[in-house]
Design brief:
This protein has helices spanning about 1-10, 20-30, 50-60, 75-85, 90-105, 120-130, 145-155, 335-355, and strands at about 10-15, 35-40, 45-50, 70-75, 110-115, 160-165, 170-175, 190-195, 200-205, 210, 215-220, 225, 230, 235-240, 240-260, 260-280, 280-285, 295-305, 310-330, 360-370, 370-385, 385-390. It is an alpha+beta fold and about 425 residues long. The chain has 4 domains: about 1-80, ACT domain (Alpha-Beta Plaits); about 110-175, Roll (Ubiquitin-like (UB roll)), CATH 3.10.20.310; about 185-260 and about 330-413, no CATH class; about 270-330, no CATH class. It has a 5-stranded antiparallel beta sheet with strand order 11-9-15-21-20, with helices on one face. A 4-stranded antiparallel beta sheet has the order 2-3-1-4. The protein starts with a helix and ends in a 23-residue tail after the last strand.
Length: about 425
């Protein structure tokens, strides 16, 4: 940062030849003249750097020093303007360029979206463009409150959004809405049914009348605990059944893989094409858009032009790099393919049973065919299978046996 300040103020490199260079340094210290980057050339010569203003303060003091002081190099904004002060066309062009950069800095040329996991960025950008925020939007004309309200009305999955503008870059920060699961109200009578088929291993019933016992085989959708209570003392009444039912479940999964796969062998030949974007316009810096390679990878590199202070210019250079490769057949052995399928099947099984499930045992069988390997998995697991459903109106009016409930009428919450 200090280098930028010194460049704006202008600085000069001096070579001081004096019988005693220490006198020069003492003179600067006594008069509070700052310098930096001191380099000793020989016994009587040193070089220092100071600002243009400091040099102006030093010059009246040089006759008392009895030394030769020679400017070696000058740089900075004041020096630049001093050199072009009589070049009116160049000065006018420079001023016009500064004004153009300042005007362009008032517009948005780059938009970044952060904070989104489920909603794609392109959908958020599309809605923002519909409400008037896009590439080339006049930044001082944005009204954050109106913008936030307009976007939230159009996107139900967003809970909060804000647009921060820094120079020509707009950062869109969003928070996605967390939708609560569909819950059955606490005062609604329910029944507990089996979300998966299996053999009951453990039953923890807090409320309701058990319809099955440990060791019973149940099928998906079958009622396990009823919220309809038949009592000789109080008659029939209804409540919210609640239970946690664990069952042993079984899965049969299969996955196949060809033994021959294609691997890329890069030849080292590349083709590069460049194009420039001015806002939304594009200019290709090549004449032939065709690619002579039959098989290749395409790599896109973007280079944005920015100025100090975060000012993004509406200019972007894009390079398209095509790397040629030769498809090379690669043969896997049966053991490698079987091991890879073994790992994929276990990962699929863990995803099916979720974090609350437990794998009790697994059995793998490998089936080999010409050019193909198939692995079959039979697994025994232990899972919590209880789920809730509302009691239907006919269940709350007429006695009905749980096995007589049509399976297609069972609604999971």
């Amino acid at each position: 940062m200090q280098r930028v300040v010194n460049f704006l103020r202008g600085h000069i490199r001096l070579e001081v030849e004096c019988a005693y260079p220490e006198r020069f340094m003492n003179l600067c210290a006594q008069n509070h003249i700052a310098f930096w980057n001191l380099v000793r050339i020989d016994d009587i010569t040193v070089q220092v750097t100071m600002t243009i203003n400091a040099y102006g303060e030093l010059r009246p003091l040089l006759p008392n020093l009895h030394a030769q002081v020679r400017p070696v190099k000058q740089a900075g904004v004041p020096i630049f303007f001093l050199r072009i002060r009589k070049r009116y066309a160049l000065t006018a062009g420079f001023l016009i360029t500064l004004i153009a950069i300042w005007v362009m800095s008032l517009y948005i040329w780059d938009i970044q979206v952060t904070g989104n996991d489920q909603i794609p960025s392109h959908e958020i950008l599309r809605v923002l463009e519909d409400v008037g925020v896009g590439i080339g939007t006049f930044a001082p004309g944005l009204h954050p409150e109106d913008l936030r309200n307009e976007v939230l009305l159009r996107m139900d999955d967003l809970a909060w959004i804000t647009v921060n503008v820094n120079g020509s870059r707009a950062t869109v920060i969003v928070r996605e809405r967390i939708h609560p699961p569909d819950m059955i109200p606490a005062d609604i009578p329910t029944a507990v049914f089996a979300a998966k088929s299996g053999i009951i291993d453990q039953m923890i019933i807090w409320r309701g009348d058990a319809l099955v016992e440990v060791g019973d085989t149940v099928v998906i959708g079958q009622d396990l605990v009823s919220g309809r209570i038949e009592s000789l003392a109080t008659g029939t009444y209804f409540l919210r059944a609640d239970a946690r039912i664990y069952a042993r479940t079984w899965y049969e999964l299969s996955m196949s893989m060809p033994l021959e796969r294609i691997e890329k062998t890069f030849t080292g030949r590349t083709s590069t094409k460049s194009r420039i974007f001015f806002g939304k316009s594009r200019i290709n810096l090549y004449f032939n858009s065709g690619i002579s390679y039959e098989t290749y990878d395409k790599i896109i590199e973007d280079f944005d032009f920015t100025l100090p202070g975060g000012i993004v210019l509406p200019i972007r250079l894009q390079r398209l790099i095509h790397r040629e490769y030769t498809p090379t057949p690669l043969e896997l052995d049966h053991e490698q393919a079987a091991q890879l399928l073994h790992e994929r099947l276990l990962a699929q099984l863990e995803e099916l049973i979720g974090s609350g499930g437990e794998i009790l045992s697994t059995s793998f069988t490998v089936e080999a065919a010409p050019g193909m390997v198939t692995v079959h998995l039979v697994a025994e697991c232990r899972e919590q299978i209880a789920n809730l459903r509302r009691l239907r109106e006919d269940e709350m009016q007429n006695p009905i046996h749980p096995d007589e409930i049509p399976r297609e009428e069972i609604n999971q919450p």
